[in-house]
Specification:
The protein is α+β, with helices and mostly antiparallel strands. It contains six helices and ten strands, in the order H-H-H-H-H-E-E-E-E-E-E-E-E-E-E-H. The protein has a six-stranded antiparallel beta sheet with strand order 1-2-3-9-4-7, with no helix packed on it. Strands 8-5-6-10 form a four-stranded antiparallel beta sheet, with no helix packed on it. The chain starts with 19 loop residues before the first helix and ends with a helix.
Length: about 220
C-alpha cells in the first residue's frame, strides 16, 4: 500500500466519530517535519529557501521545528518554491482517486492535453501540432530553465536544437537541456502528435533521430 510522508488518519475510526479539532492539530503539527523533509530531499539549504521565498531564516527554522504556527502567507510561497500543491505541503487527506482529468488548451496553434497534475515535479503533456502553413516563418528557437523529453506518437516533428536540424517520426524520442536554443513544429502534411515531459530533472529517454535536408523538407 502506498505511503506518504505523513501518517494517515486511523481508518478504523468512522469519520463521523473523529474529533475534527484533533485532526486539524495533527495536520498542523506534521507541517514542520514535512517542510524539513521536503527541503532536505530537494537538497535546498535554509538560506537558499529564504532567498527564494522572501521568508527570513529564523522564521523558516521555527516553522520546521514546530515553534512557529504555519499560516497561509507562509505556506503559499513555500509551496511555490518546492513546486508542490498546498494540500501536499500540509499533508491534507488524499482523495483516493489517482486519475488525472485533463483540460486541453490551445497555445500558438498547438493543442496541449495535460497528463499530470499541476503540482507534479515533471509535467507531462500530449501535444498535437497542426500542419504548418508553408508561408509562415519557421518558429524562432527559444531557451528557458529545465529539461525536456519528446516521444512522437504519429506524424513528423521537426526539431531545431542548437546547430542540429532533426526530424522525429513515430516511435522516436529526443531529450535535451532547454538552455539550448530549440523550436519544434510539424514537418508533414498531417497533424503530428507527441508526448512531452518537462521538468528540472528525471530519467532520460534514449534519443534516435535522423538529420533532415533542405531539399526534403523545403527548408527556407
Amino acid at each position: 500500500m502506498p505511503t506518504r510522508d505523513h501518517e494517515w488518519p486511523d481508518e478504523r475510526v468512522p469519520a463521523a466519530e473523529r474529533d475534527p479539532d484533533a485532526d486539524l492539530a495533527d495536520v498542523i503539527t506534521a507541517v514542520g517535519p514535512r517542510l524539513r523533509a521536503l527541503r532536505r530531499r530537494r537538497g535546498t539549504t535554509l538560506a537558499q529557501l529564504s532567498e527564494a521565498t522572501g521568508i527570513s531564516l529564523s522564521t523558516l527554522s521555527r516553522l520546521e521545528s514546530g515553534q512557529r504556527r504555519p499560516t497561509l502567507e507562509l505556506l503559499l510561497p513555500l509551496a511555490k518554491a518546492h513546486r508542490v500543491a498546498l494540500d501536499d505541503l500540509v499533508g491534507a487527506p488524499d482523495t483516493g482517486d489517482p486519475r488525472v482529468r485533463p483540460r486541453p488548451f490551445v497555445r500558438h496553434g498547438c493543442t496541449y492535453v495535460p497528463l499530470s497534475r499541476e503540482f507534479a515535479g515533471v509535467h507531462a503533456f500530449k501535444q498535437i501540432l497542426p500542419p504548418r502553413d508553408p508561408s509562415q516563418p519557421v518558429p524562432e528557437p527559444r531557451v528557458h530553465e529545465g529539461y525536456e523529453w519528446l516521444y512522437v506518437l504519429s506524424g513528423r516533428v521537426r526539431l531545431l536544437l542548437g546547430e542540429h536540424d532533426l526530424v522525429l517520426t513515430a516511435g522516436e524520442a529526443a531529450e535535451f537541456d532547454t538552455h539550448t536554443p530549440h523550436a519544434f513544429f510539424n514537418a508533414g502534411p498531417q497533424p503530428a502528435e507527441f508526448l512531452s515531459l518537462f521538468g528540472p530533472q528525471g530519467e532520460r529517454i534514449h534519443v534516435r533521430a535522423r538529420p533532415t535536408t533542405a531539399s526534403s523538407e523545403g527548408r527556407p
